[in-house]
């Protein structure tokens, strides 16, 4: 028998520890640079992700326009075919993408109809006008196509290779002290911030089903830390003409979100939620940070563990393409439909004006310019996160547009995605709870945004 320790024998496959370190560090640094590194733009500082979106929109506008038509029409036809027609999905992904409920089938088909009617100019004026179709189809959704294309391959650099776990561990004790939440919740919160709010909600529901969270903890994480991601914030800022103050804007979003996170877990309805685990699960020990570990040691351990099982390059490309197909064919058509319906109601019916009437004198008392135009943004965000910004983009006052943009990304509860996921989950949240949380967040965010706009940003 040889006396040589096999661990000392060189391996043709290289040093697995070094490989894990490289797999952890390189994608994390690239992702952080893409989404977090300030770079000079034509007029002000921006991020590389924003530069890439602007470049795509500037050079491929016509291609993106007709891609949007192809995506929405294909989505509508395939969803009808596989949900109500004779088509049988061949793979689980086809089931996930194109077999859905009647409401979502209707929304995708409406999205296709709105897109075709606007793009061809064959629709009525209430579809083809600049305030409705021009805003949604001609501007927002074309931007979102580019955003989804880049985000599908860029965001996994932050979420799949250990960066999220590393930063989450560093924040774990702060989450426990400030928000009365286990350390693991910091990682789930970052999944929203660095990925997408629906992703963070789904992760939280999965953790609750495994017994990691109590009902109150899961409801708190899902409704308080489902922060709109950096790429979406950039699109909102650009939509309302605030890309030149993006870093100040995002800093204010973070500050307001922090204040809301301090308050909401301590008041109803979240404080009413039971502090018990899901029946049939056991209480999991929060082992984000092991005994005797520093936060950096814990973050490094978790980051390397994630990197060890992270996708290789081929899997990265495959996963990115699947993410892109899901976002393009599932989210884009429904978003077109919801945004168009809401803007048509805003422009051609008095519904939102009636709903927002009580807020007009409050905004005027607070010194908000164009208060009547801004007031609908306080209520319309419950339907979809883009709607306040879509309504407020034509407001002349920069401070008021700042308020509207803050509300777009700070209210968090919107029924087109996050709200629908929460209602389908088993966290015990109903439509009344979600409406209460939406209203409370709006009450907190509005005065803070007004103060920050007047005395800090502008």
Automatic annotation (TrEMBL):
Domain Nucleoside transporter/FeoB GTPase Gate: 142-242
InterPro entries attached to this UniProt entry: Gate_dom (IPR011642)
Entry keyword Transmembrane helix: yes
TM annotation in the entry: 20-39, 60-82, 102-121, 133-155, 186-206, 218-237, 244-264, 325-346, 402-423, 435-457
Pfam families given in the database record: Gate
Record's keyword annotation contains Transmembrane: yes
Keyword tags: Membrane, Transmembrane, Transmembrane helix
The protein's name: Nucleoside transporter/FeoB GTPase Gate domain-containing protein
Organism: Pelagivirga sediminicola
């Amino acid at each position: 028998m040889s006396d040589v320790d096999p661990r000392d024998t060189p391996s043709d496959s290289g040093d697995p520890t070094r490989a894990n370190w490289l797999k952890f560090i390189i994608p994390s640094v690239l992702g952080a640079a893409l989404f977090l590194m300030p770079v000079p733009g034509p007029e002000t500082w921006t991020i590389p992700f924003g530069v890439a979106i602007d470049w795509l929109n500037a050079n491929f506008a016509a291609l993106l326009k007709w891609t949007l038509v192809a995506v929405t029409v294909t989505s509508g036809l395939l969803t009808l075919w596989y949900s109500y027609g004779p088509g049988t999905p061949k793979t689980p992904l086809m089931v996930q993408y194109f077999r859905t409920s009647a409401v979502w089938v209707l929304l995708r088909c409406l999205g296709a109809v709105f897109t075709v009617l606007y793009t061809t100019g064959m629709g009525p004026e209430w579809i083809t006008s600049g305030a409705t179709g021009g805003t949604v189809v001609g501007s927002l959704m074309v931007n979102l196509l580019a955003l989804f294309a880049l985000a599908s391959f860029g965001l996994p650099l932050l979420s799949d290779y250990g960066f999220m776990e590393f930063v989450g561990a560093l924040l774990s004790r702060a989450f426990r002290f400030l928000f009365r939440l286990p350390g693991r919740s910091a990682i789930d919160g970052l999944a929203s911030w660095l990925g997408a709010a629906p992703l963070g909600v789904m992760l939280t529901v999965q953790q609750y089903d495994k017994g990691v969270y109590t009902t109150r903890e899961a409801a708190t994480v899902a409704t308080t830390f489902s922060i709109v991601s950096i790429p979406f914030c950039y699109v909102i800022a650009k939509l309302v003409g605030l890309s030149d103050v993006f870093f100040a804007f995002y800093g204010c979003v973070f500050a307001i979100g922090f204040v809301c996170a301090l308050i909401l877990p301590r008041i109803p309805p979240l404080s009413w939620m039971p502090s018990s685990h899901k029946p049939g699960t056991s209480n999991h020990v929060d082992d984000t940070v092991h005994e005797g570990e520093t936060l950096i040691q814990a973050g490094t351990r978790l980051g390397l563990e994630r990197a060890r099982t992270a996708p290789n390059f081929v899997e990265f490309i495959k996963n990115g393409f699947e993410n892109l197909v899901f976002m393009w064919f599932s989210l884009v058509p429904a978003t077109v439909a919801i945004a168009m319906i809401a803007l048509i109601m805003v422009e051609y019916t008095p519904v939102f004006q009636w709903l927002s009437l009580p807020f007009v004198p409050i905004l005027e008392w607070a010194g908000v310019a164009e208060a009547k135009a801004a007031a609908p943004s306080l209520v319309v965000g419950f339907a979809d996160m883009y709607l306040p910004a879509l309504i407020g983009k034509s407001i002349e006052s920069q401070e008021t547009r700042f308020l509207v943009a803050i509300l777009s990304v700070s209210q968090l509860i919107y029924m087109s995605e996050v709200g629908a996921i929460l209602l389908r989950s088993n966290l015990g949240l109903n439509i009344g709870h979600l409406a209460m949380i939406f209203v409370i967040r709006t009450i907190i965010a509005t005065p803070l945004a007004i103060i920050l706009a007047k005395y800090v940003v502008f």
